[in-house]
Design a protein that fits this description.
Layout (H helix, E strand, L loop, with lengths): L4 H12 L2 H10 L4 E2 H8 L3 H14 L2 E6 L2 E6 L2 H31 L14
Length: about 120
C-alpha cells in the first residue's frame, strides 16, 4: 500500500525538524561546504554533526562530495533553498504580525495604578 501524500509530507517536515539540520541547509545554500567548515560554523561535536548529515543524506536532500581527504556537502537541488527562503518569508510575516499585535496591546493597556504608601502609626 502506498503512503498518502500528506503522510509523506509530514515525514519530510519531521526530517527537517532539527535546528542543526536547518542550519546545515542554510549554510549549503551558497554551494558545497567542507565538513570542517560546517563544524566551525555550527560549533557542535563532530559525531553529532555526522549524525545529522547522515539523516539529510539518507533523505536525498544533500549529497556528499569527496575531494582527496576533504568531504564536503551540497544541496541536491535548488528546491530546498527555495523552501528555506519561503520559511523565512513566512516567519517574517508572522513576527511582523506579532509585533503589530504587541504594539496594539501596549497602546490599549491602561497604566498600572501606583500603590499608595500607608501612613502607618503616628
Amino acid at each position: 500500500m502506498q503512503v498518502p501524500l500528506y503522510q509523506a509530507k509530514a515525514e519530510f517536515f519531521r526530517m527537517l525538524g532539527h535546528p542543526v539540520r536547518i542550519r546545515v541547509l542554510e549554510l549549503l545554500q551558497g554551494g558545497p561546504v567542507a565538513v570542517r567548515d560546517l563544524l566551525t560554523e555550527i560549533e557542535i561535536e563532530p559525531s553529532s554533526l555526522s549524525q545529522q548529515l547522515a539523516v539529510l543524506r539518507r533523505s536525498g536532500i544533500v549529497v556528499s562530495i569527496r575531494e582527496g581527504s576533504t568531504v564536503s556537502y551540497a544541496l541536491a537541488g535548488g528546491d530546498v533553498a527555495e523552501l528555506l527562503r519561503a520559511a523565512r518569508r513566512i516567519l517574517t510575516e508572522l513576527l511582523a504580525g506579532q509585533n503589530e499585535l504587541l504594539a496594539e496591546l501596549r497602546q490599549a493597556e491602561p497604566p498600572l495604578p501606583v500603590p499608595q504608601r500607608s501612613a502607618g502609626p503616628s
